[in-house]
Give the backbone structure.
Amino acid sequence: MMTNNALPLPKASGRDAPNLRELYARYGILAALLAVCVALSFANEFFMTWGNWADILRQTSINGILAVGMTYVVLTGGIDLSVGAILAFSGIVSAWLVASGGAYGVGTSVLAGLGVGLSMGAVNGLLIARFSVPPFVATLGMLSAARGFTYIFNDGMPVSDLPPAFLAIGDARIGGVPLPILIFAAVIGVFWFVLRYTIYGRYIYAVGGNVKSAKTSGIGTRKVVFAVYAVSGLLAGLAGILLAARTTAALPQAGVSYELDAIAAVVIGGTSLSGGTGSLTGTLLGALLIGVINNGLNLLGVSSYYQQVIKGVIIVGAVLLDTSRKKNT
Amino acid sequence: MKRLKTLALGVALTVTLAGAATAQGQDRPLRVGAAVYGLKGEFMQMWSAQLKAHPSVLDGSVKVTIFDGNYDALTQSNQFDTMITQKYDAIIFVPIDLKAGAAPVQKAVKAGIPVVGSNTRVAGDVLTSYVGNDDVVAGRMEAEALMKKIGGKGNIVVIEGPIGQSAQIERARGNDEVLAKHPEVTVLARKTGNWSRAESMSLMENWLTAFPGKIDGVIAQNDDEALGAVQAIKSKGMDITKIPVVGVDGIAAAIGAVQRGEMTTNFQDAQAQAQGAMDVALRAMKGPSYQPRSTIWTEYADRMPWGDGTAKSYTVPWTEITPENAEAFLKKVKPQ
């Protein structure tokens, strides 16, 4: 009795509960990731080794880079379905220049690959921002067109026999760390900084939160929207070059349905598909969770069909928890 | 205007073609439709190019149209309807699915159009003939090649094709036949790489972590998967000659890898499948006097005898690619 009276119970629950919810919103995905990691390290002795984590990060880097661009797009309330196709086209152009094209160096061909990605993203941006084509439609069109260009470009054949200097992008190590991981880390770092500490970053949230009020407060919303698709295309180009270097060939059928994995990472990371809220940290954790689960189930020898089921459950589960949280607050 | 131009071109073309055709004792070019399951993979690209390079297509006595089935059974069925309506003289068929391909074939045969199968099988027995490789043999040959390399004992992993696809089922059967004879071989893991280089690379990386220093060899059910495994081993800084990798198909990149001593593979001959099917189809249209024109019949000679061109099935033999013969095969897959 005494203790009950001594504790200001109602007040405490009133204050603590939202804090817990906030805590969950912030760290729920992190907790999920840690829980999976702990479980896997008990289940398999090799899971928690540096070598395995280098694998996970390397395997995650391509989806992770796509997911960074996708986060920008989704934050504005849009969607980019064309990243897998842009990845394939940029990769094959870049690889062709350095291999069959012959005369071009690694630097030039990498820049060309990035340029292809950027310009295709810019076309998306133009269609959406300038001509008000719904993002789903514009990027669906680009998905088809870019894939078509990829097959046309080299008559549907892969580009292989890439020079070692180009392949180094995929398997070189700097201070023991594989280059794709460093590139992924740099991309995350730069785009996290831009989103968090620059005016442009704040504009992205503003446009996604409420376009009209963003417009009335003097933000050039069209420019912001245009830029996120250009960025997404650019990063898809980068991912295409990395993929070609890692697999030692640019295959025209590379990256099919990669856009869905990128969207999954963004959604699991807690970014709202209606725009305005979310973070790159969440996306990073979402991409890592997908990577860790794929890796862990391979280590444990679980069939890849279960991997797909588990990924599906996680995607829906993450959003379900997210919406129930919003209802409560 | 444009239509006129097309018409004029068409007339001119027909006259030229007719000229070429009469030399062979016939008035108009025969129309052959090739319905292939999809043109996104490297192999079907080569197959199509080889079909168009058949001597009778080159000299204009046969006009070939390739229909891309886009990996969809319904699309292929619709394309058969189109070919039947347009009264094609013969159809060469590479179905996406064994069972789903049966009905369209029956429709065409009922309409009096001979159908020759190529590359992948179709259920039923109404096909005029089938020209293709035997995937069970491929599975057997690659497993035997690996057994030879690892001395018939040790631990291996198997990267399979998409589960349920006919090539996966048959190659796996061939793998298993050989593995059953080697009780000292343990299969540590067996999983699909979905014919994908990127997917197989991740899979192999994870296996190298899960079974450190234990994997003695890799069976991959096609070359893209084998190349992914090779790349995974190399990117871990391991010695590729210590973990032999075997694949199937003989695509250009794999032939290059054979030259570098990184893997072993068996050659699936797109030219023999495509041009062989064309010759068999022409024999069905023109009768017993027809002599096959593709060079593949002299190349394989006794290993795939023409007979009188009416056999129900022509099985194209597999050839192991070695560092010595690799150059010749590379010329075959990359004609320039």
About this structure: Chain A has 14 helices and two strands.
